[in-house]
Amino acid sequence: MYKIALSGQMFDDFSIWDHLEAVHAFGYDAAEIRSTHLHPGLDAAQKEEIHRYLARNEIAGNCLSCFVGNYGLLTDGECAEAFAVFERYLALAVEFGVPLLRVWPAWEASATAGEAVFGRAAEWMRRSADAAARCGVRLAMETHHGTLCDTPQACLRLLEAIGRENVGLILDPVNLYQTPVDDLPACVHALKGHIFQVHVKDIQRLRSGAHPGCFPYRAYADHIGRFTKVVPPQAQDGAFYAHRRIGCGGVDWPGVLQALEQTGFDGMLVVESVAERDALMPRGRELARACREDLLALLRARPALRQMHAVSPQARGLHAVITPATHPCHVSHLLRLNLGAGETFLLETGELEMNAALICGRARVAGALEAQMGRLDSFYLPGGSALSIKAGEEGCSFYIGAAPCDGVGKAFLRPFVPQSAGGAFWDVHGTGAGRRDVFFTLDEATPASRLICGLTWGGDGAWTSWPPHQHERDLEESYCYFDMDPPQCGLHLSYPTDEPFAAARVDVVSSGHYLLVADGYHPTVATPGTRNAYFWVLCAHSHAQRSYGLAKTDPALA
């Protein structure tokens, strides 16, 4: 589930305390702080009071939303003055630990802006980006009608001209809807990798100005003109719009959210709804409450969890069962290798690291490792490795977990040691009906880039991950079941972190079934007469996040 922040825009006519109190009261994950509330003109006592409130209520600022920049429309002298203002806001972002700062390149539509406007905007955005990089801050240009970032093509043109990795976009589908850009999901795909966060609100395009709360297309120019220069729009003079609750307007939010998931976006969704003159819309605090409910309803309307239940093939060869290219995950790769009697296969890792467990049969490996392998033995290979695998006389099958390799890890083979013989890689988790035995095929103490893997067995009809846990912020987990041939089976349950256990999705699993769980709580239980047995794979989003102790249990069931 995405993290959700609340913009201060709906509180522009209220105090910062109204904004931050709504963030805290309604369970938002962060606050997008507006320059109407936090600006360099505040005295030290006012800033200290804001600091204390944020710390006391554990509120993080995800972005400082400013009206700085507009370099493309300014003279050299004006650009220098605007840059000095930017530096003051940059210092404020650093002071408050805010990692993202909004900057405007130029308030002129890309279709009318000439090369000089694009060039000057890119030049001063580079200077701003370099100053921000020295402070560890990223810059975001908002996609907005009437600016140089009013279409995906214009955004990419400007980003290429700026050429700085710490400069990206705040995707605002409502603003693009007004350009107008009709295929919003296609915009998300076109801008893949450049979207730092997403503004969420909704409006409806109208045929007339009869609606009592509607506004004309050019309203933005009057609004922004209070802060900086604007080249007025030359089109859509007859277009009118009205604010709507999220999901009730003309923006294809289901399509946008699906595209964000497909492109691997993992940033913040920032509620930025406003009511303005529309008496049919809630305002202030009530709008903040309603927006979070509306957005959560939209998110739940999609597949509630980024998970995938797949049955791995039994046919010979190497099969990519679950990968980021085909399934809703970012770093997890789950493969299966099946070889016939005496068959040989060259396994090449490429850019991935791999941990493979021999689930059935015997095999001989040569190349990066030299060994005879028996059932439940395993090996690890870093990126850029190759291993020749020759199956024994009964054939063999490997379950393989893989993740991007960051250059950490060395090839090794780990023989399976029965629990009765002890050994350093056995562990016992849980108690009573939740007790399970774990053998680490790749433990945290053994160097690797992203992976931690192992084998787990539960008791007859027992739970193998109780109480329910999740580690979605840092890790994706997968369960690959074996030794549970039908009619033996287990139940794999999963539910979002903001839902009760009663809302769990249930998947029936048996040998060969792979379950990816990218987010949410996920307990598992065996049916009577069955012991859950699975090869589990933890894939960290980065090497720094590789840790076995990150699981968070459902507080309602802990």
Q: How much helix, percentage-wise, in residues? A: 10-25%
Number of helices: 10
- How many distinct beta strands? 31
Mean pLDDT: 92
Global structural class: alpha+beta
Gyration radius over CA: 27 Å
| Distance from first to last alpha carbon | 21 Å
Low confidence ranges = none
Beta-strand residue percentage = 25-35%
What is the 3D shape? elongated
Report the biggest beta sheet as strand number plus sense, adding barrel if it closes. 8 strands, parallel
The spatial strand order of the largest sheet comes to: 3-2-1-11-7-6-5-4
Describe the overall structure.
Strands 3-2-1-11-7-6-5-4 form an eight-stranded parallel β-sheet. Strands 13, 14, 15, 16, 17, 18, 19 and 20 form an eight-stranded antiparallel β-sheet that branches. It has a seven-stranded antiparallel β-sheet with strand order 12-28-25-30-23-22-21, with no helix packed on it. The protein is 21% helix and 32% strand. It is elongated, with a radius of gyration of 27 Å. With 558 residues, the protein is an alpha+beta fold. It has ten helices and 31 strands. α1 runs parallel beside α10, α3 packs parallel to α4 (115-133) and α7 (184-190) runs parallel beside α9 (253-262). It starts with a strand and ends in a 5-residue tail after the last strand.
Question: What's this model, at a glance?
Answer:
The protein has 558 residues and is of the alpha+beta class.
Keywords:
single chain, 558 residues, alpha+beta, eight-stranded parallel beta sheet, eight-stranded antiparallel beta sheet, 31 strands, 21% helix, 32% strand, elongated
